[in-house]
Records
---
Amino acid sequence: MGILLDKATDVVVQGATGKEGKRVVAAMRAYGTRVSCGVTPGKGGTVSDDLPVFSDVRAACAAFPALNASVIVVPPFAAKEAILEAIEAGIPLISVMTERMPMRDAAYCFATAKEHGIRIIGPASLGIIVPGVGRLGVIGGPLVDEIFTPGSVGVISRSGGMTNELSWSVRQAGLGQSAAVHVGGDSLLGTSYADALRLFEADPETEAVVVYGEQGGACEFEIASLVRKGQFTKPIAVHVGGDFAKALPEGAVVGHAGAIVRRGQSAADKAKVLSESGVLVAERFDDLVQSVKPLISHAHHDTHLAHHQGR
Amino acid sequence: MNLYEHEGKDLLASFGIRVPKGTLVRRAEADAIVNDGPCVAKAQALASDRAKRGGIAVCASAAEARAAAARWLDGGMDCLDVDAVLIEEKIPAVRELYVACLQDTGARGPVLLAGTVGGSGIESSGQVLRFPLDAKVPAAFSASLHRGLEAVAPGFAAFCRSLVEAFQTSDARQIEINPVAVLTDGAFVALDAKIALDVDAAFRHPEWEAYGQRTESGKALTPRELAVRSIDAGARWYQGTAGKYREMDGDVAVLFSGGGASIVIMDELAHHGLAAANYTEYSGNPPREKVRDLARIVLSKPGLRGLLIAGGVANFTDIKETFAGIVDALDETQPPYPIVIRRAGPNEKEGMELMRACAERNGLRMALHGKETTMRDAVGQLEKMMQSYGHPA
């Protein structure tokens, strides 16, 4: 089952004819996700790697009425316009890969999406994967079949690379993933940890969730408050990276744009709040999956699935 | 990018916000301070708690201001270099308020914070009102917000609207004015200005070039930290990021890829008792040239005893392309110290082969690992290799 995606997911890629756009289209198709068309302003009517290209999302939707997801791979200065176009065309799920999008533009798009009941993942997100079903974006890259296999563990990460690394730990522990979501590393997120956790809470396939978090910013505190309020009830383990940053001056950014060193937002501060709220906290990244494994009743089932699926 | 107080005040003034009359003095001009009467001298440093750290002096005369300025310009402020001092008129406030506008994670957009008192520590005191703004038109205050601000002080809503205009138009991440002085006639004056700009919006703000290079703490950049900043400039600025380099005190050079992996591996270095010579991370599939320029700078630091090239399982960063850039730099420097590599992702076979060939032709001590080796174990191996390497001659 998984979250957000299913076999009927039908994708338009905005920015499909660029170098990165072409790789994104190929990656999704290679994983069996339907990509019906691309959009690049001014290139309507052309065909790129067997993909019909339109000049705007509205025209794409007219030709492919089943389109229900967009992946955005445009430069940062064009991201706001591209997202608004997808919103206006009524695409209900928009995954924004664009990195370094201005915060003012992201905030504007989130507000508009909210008015229309549309979900945005990102920006600066590599997307979401539901193993065996499909992927929106490029999570897993070419090694997707080595890393991902259907199972019962939900994966959430602020880092694209660590989405894979964590999913790989899940796989090495003999488990599989119900879905993996890269929420993105910016300060403003269309889909927060808490939003992703609500989706995993409602998903019957998901038995437990593992989260890669970081020092700086406030997103990890949302996990604690969700768990305290009883809105997330499944086993959950978090690792908060960036303990070394406690030695750096306030305002320093380490890694992602949202990972800004601030008093009260260190890795230790977050670990403490999470732990006090009943969240399992792994002090070292390598221990993250092992800390929830004993709580997963289907662990054996996952191993079995992984063995037989061969992917 | 954080602005100095004087830059922030100039920005606020351009949006019609009143700031104290002042003069900015640099080293050569410090002797020329001629304020006739009481004034406030303020060291221009990018630090919070300047008052506690001895960076603000209320002066009775120009002589006192000259003395304070000379002290900071020659000796710095609490270990920070000071290049300029702001000498301002003393404002007779009947009351002080707090106001800030910032992009807020929980609200997913701008919020306005307002406090009925100003001063140090107010932002974390719980005495601050928090109002989410409409991200589409933040300066169009709702009726209830307008009433709330007018209840703080008559006319405060209009003042806050100017602040929000400045915030929005300038692509700020945060503007904080603490304190805002209320004068006897009810006018508002920004006594301080703490502004952080969203660097991702730099493409539409050519005027920001005038602000010059700086670190977040105001500590001067090292020559390498300065050199790395040109990497992500130019026409290909948005094609990946390879311009992050923070000099640190250790002897392990690092070339990490991925924001998340980089901090996990930094933590692992500490767990193994190793100390990084730098913090560096490239990501977003940067081209070979960018990675080469970055690697050259990382390897140029004296006193290195090990090199760790590591990242997670890449999604779309091309291992062959990025490793080709590192190989260019390794061919030039031929480091004698041990090198451990841990990486996986697109074109990893080709990338690893480039590294292997580079090690062979240059006689490098290099260990190569894919995703089967954890980041922790890769760091463990570097620790062992460095133990047998000994100290540089």
Note: The first strand of chain A starts at residue 10 and ends at 14.
---
Amino acid sequence: MTRTIEPAPGDEYEMLYSRLQQIVEQLESGDLPLAQALALYEEGVATAEACQRLLDHAALRVRTLMDGGDRSPAVTETDA
Amino acid sequence: MQLLTVSQLNVYLRDLLDADDLLRDVWVAGEISSFSRHFSGHCYFTLKEGEAQIGAVMWKSTASRLATLPVNGEAVLAHGRVAFYEVRGQVQLYVDMLRPAGMGLLQAQFERLKERLAAEGLFDPSRKRPLPLLPHRIGIVTSPTGAALQDMLNILRRRYPLAEVIFAPCRVQGAGAADTIIDALYALYEIGVDVIIVARGGGAAEDLWTFNDEQVARAVFASPVPVVSGVGHETDTTIIDFVADVRAPTPSAAAELVSPDIAELTDDIAQMRNRLGAAMTQRLANARETVARLKLHLDLRSPESRIRRDRQRIDEFIRRATTTVERRITLARARLDGERGRLEALSPLATLERGYAVVQSSQGTLITDASQVAPDESIEIVVRRGHFRARVEPQSPADSTANDWKKQIQT
């Protein structure tokens, strides 16, 4: 019986995706020193790959709350 | 105490009834009797319940909307207003809606609850929240045994497998079902999800009734996160459809509404990659351009070009100085030539040229007086070209003084 839930894959995806957006916008603003731009570009490519990897390997996770008689949520994992 | 005419009394009674809010908008449950349909199309009947009865009128416009006309003895729900009919001195129900009781009763309850909750603001469009773009956790409240759950999970698996589904099972019909829905909802509120789907597959209207429960509606209203309702089929409408932030026509539609499509996400990433590449290419092009521009600036400001310019200026100075000096030299030479001419004119050499000679003693003294010499003395004679020695002859009587000589010349 656990009450805390570890981060969902979506948390990681959203974090990576918003970082990717940030990098692209920063790079498009165009006034960065070249070395910094190159570093950002590399990070951007790696982040995009990480995003895609998450999508490619995602498998829907389903947890079922068991009726414990009261309203406290008990969680069991079930196969989707 | 007042004396009234009949018409004055009736007008007073009419106004009294008209002023009453309840009587203007009321549902009355009763049984039809003495039903008659006038040739004009208007219907007249009596509503009875036990010993009580009231006259009722249903205008042609209302009667024509009914699928079937009521028959005597039928239990109905009549909606309308109660007013005083002065001509007959009777209180009458003017019916504008007529439903068979049973289902009609439930429907009437539904309408009443809907109005009440609407007045309370539970359906207020301004409090509808937008759905999250990327829901990390999706709460689902539905029956564990229905097809609706599997339909929704299939759609989420296909469209957005990044999600985590927190499934809160409940019973969707029968006695006590409303409480299980409320418990499921609150369990999800407590655990924390990004969006909640409350769903039930299609069924008879009575089967969907749990979703018209006032307490269920209030539990949905209390949700801290957006709620999507997907109850029954497209045509079914329940109270929670009005309370939910978004109403989906079916459970599957609800699952589609809450989930982004993974194909679109993949496109998004590809687009981000393209923008990344384009921005970097642009940045490099800018850098190249900057270098070219700086190089040009550098060339213009290099010491070499400065030296080239200075050298040119020096050459110019030298040229001008040379010209000036040369002119001066020419001038000086011309003047010198003039002076030399004059000098030559004054020189004794010019006199010698004309045949005169200069006589000097052997010591070099210029002899200008005959007394300066003695006989046999050696003297030096200088002529135009060269000089020679001579000897003075002994004095003869012909010798005279210089003055005599002058005299001689003059004669």
Note: DSSP finds two helices and two strands in chain A.
---
Amino acid sequence: MQVTCRSIARAAVLTAGLILSLTAGAQVRGGSVTVGVEQDIPGFDPLVIGIYDTGAMAAAAVLFDTLTRLDDDGTVQPRLATSWTHSPDFKTWTFKLREGVKFQDGTPFNAQAVASNYRRMIDPDNHCACAFYLSAIARVEAADDMTVVYHLRNPSVKLPALLSPPTVTNVFHSPAAIKERGKDYNRHPVGTGPFRLVSWQSGGELVFERNPGYWRKGHPYLDKVVVRPMRDPNARMAAVRAGDVDIIWHDIADDVVKARADDSLTVREFPASGVSAVVFNLEKPPLDDVRVRQALRYAMDLEAFTQSFMHGLMSPATDPYGPGSGFECRDVGALHYDPAKARTLLKEYGKPVRLRYMVTAEPRGQAVGQIFQAFWEAVGVRVTLDPVDQTTFVNRSFVGDFQIGGWRIIDLADPDPQMYADFRTGSVVNISNYSNAKVDRLLEEARNTADTDRRIAAYCDIARELNHDLPWIWVTNNHYFSIARIGLRGVHKQYSDVVDVADAWWAQD
Amino acid sequence: MGWRLAAFIGRRLLYLIPIVLVVTALTSALGAMLPGDVAVSMLGTQATPAKVAALQHQLGLDLPLWRQYANWLGGLITGDFGVSYRTGEPVLSAIAQRLPVTAELMALAELGALALGVPLGMLCAARRDTAVDRLVTAGAFGMLSMPPYLLAVVLTYFLAVLWGVLPSSGYVPLADAPLANLRSMALPVLSLALVEWPPLARVLRSDMITTLRQDFVLMARAKGLSPLRILFVHALKPSSLALVTVIGLNLGRLIGGAVIVEVIFGLPGIGQMLVDATLTRDFITLQGGVVFVTLGFVLINITVDMLYAVLDPRVRHGSA
């Protein structure tokens, strides 16, 4: 049954693709699209807000441009940069910029503007929370008006791809507008993108109108884009069903199944890289003992979990990379459901195991918590759920005040930044306090190698080590969804979980 | 009488000072008890202890709590509500933009509740112990036990998704387009009004039953006045003392209901601001919101007390 559903879905996607290619060039101009996102948007100035979440990125995708973009095959294409070259050691990258691009305030986009954006974020006096994402960059300088050079601290083989999503460190603000607006800039952002922000009520929706001076001739197709924060998932789903909203970011499996059955809606999905995971704190007993961690993994029937709780929309993960990464590892030694083995390991351990499991206090976090709790209690482990809000969750993860927690590896074009941060001995983001000399060596090797096959081999070896040591249990591969009204076309693939309507248009009925 | 009323109002306004102090001090203390602060929230998944400490220092969060509170209070006295840690937006400007949304929501919800509760309460009193009375009573208890968040979902499903008569989201400012504004407020207002009318109807019913037994009503009947005229013109005012109290209490409760309804319908009001500020530990914004909610609560109560004087001559003449 599952296979049938999937093949139908795949056929539908193929057909849609075919229709799209047949009608290419027939994009209709005009109209407006309202995007329903999960979070309230705190603003756009990197220094003020530090990071863009999915809501802010949906807005950033229409307001700003990045140097590069990924096409639907995942290949890097030019955007604000027209071409790029790298030094043999991949530590220096040179980008040629597009001529004639202007910010929405009329000032020119050039190498000085790019360098000034980076200087502002990296400057230690500015204390930008975004600086973490730039820790690999030593400096960015303007070689001439239309050439920027990135000097990196470590080799980065995939830099152009990593620069493609509209994250806080990848988009370019008008330096003149930053200077003129000062503290107000956060709520009055100016980019080079296809739409400019025209109104934004505090806590309400952001209204964007077409940028008449946009550098891509004939773009955008739409006249207007509205980004509307809607925290409540039921309200978001109701709004797109009622047609008040044209496309929503969504992550509730029940609703995705409902939307697939609804003739007026289209579900777009993107099997991304990365995973969601259960995280163990290895500092304190009993989770310092690998047998206990393995027992907990053996107790989990992730196949049943994904089938029932997620309607089979997401697949159980066996490594931290996922099908969207293009890294296919053969036999990474992932453990599978085997309650008998779990009991044997716990018997070997000998002492009763009592654990507290920290979950996010929202319906989804608690539901997942209860399911895993049931898995673990079935093999004789006593588990207490500890529901906390998101800020508390992150805080306690970093100060080590948890036994079992959770984390995500998000969709990025390369595993290096997150794998290195999460599993390298002594890294501040290594919340498990995991340390394995072999993994450290392999992480360095993968970072310093340009050869794709050798990198894949190194990352697959890392996955094998992690599957044995189990500081984290991979739960599901990332899979992102959006639900839209049927006539909406030209929505980009949901790379990095960004609902990107910059090139969207309405099909004529 | 004029100066006594002024003295009364003045006294009540003076109470406002200790109330605001106590409420905001408590909010501060409660906030400090929550794990993580705005620095943790802003840094998100990069909230390592070293980074948190640096950002806390930058934001002045490493000062002792009493000094942070004193600083904030000092600003408040000069009318400076501070600047949101999270968005850099002046708190007063955020409140100024959001207050009209919440005020409109509450006013319309209370009007809706009155429009339902007053006629139904009078109907029940006039037709006491009949089938009509029992039906309305059953309906009242049914609605009373319905939480607004459930009602909001049910109403959205029928009125927005199934029949498409009302929009399920998308606030339109009143000044931009009054009609579209009312349409966008309809579902949130209904979600609140439909659970708020029962206490009004119940209280009015019982008071009015007492009133209808009074001699002057018998007199009016004997004069041959129409039943509707007796109810509205003669009986309503003397029966509405408890009603006014309940309206005051209701409005206080509505502030809580507004929080839930604003989040569900994505209305950019004070309630949503309080929720966002709490979740992100943006306590400067939270404190500012709390001051306005407290003000609103106290002003509503003063108004109710003044209405007693208007409605009941005994209060006015100080001879209860």
Note: Chain B has a mean pLDDT of 85.
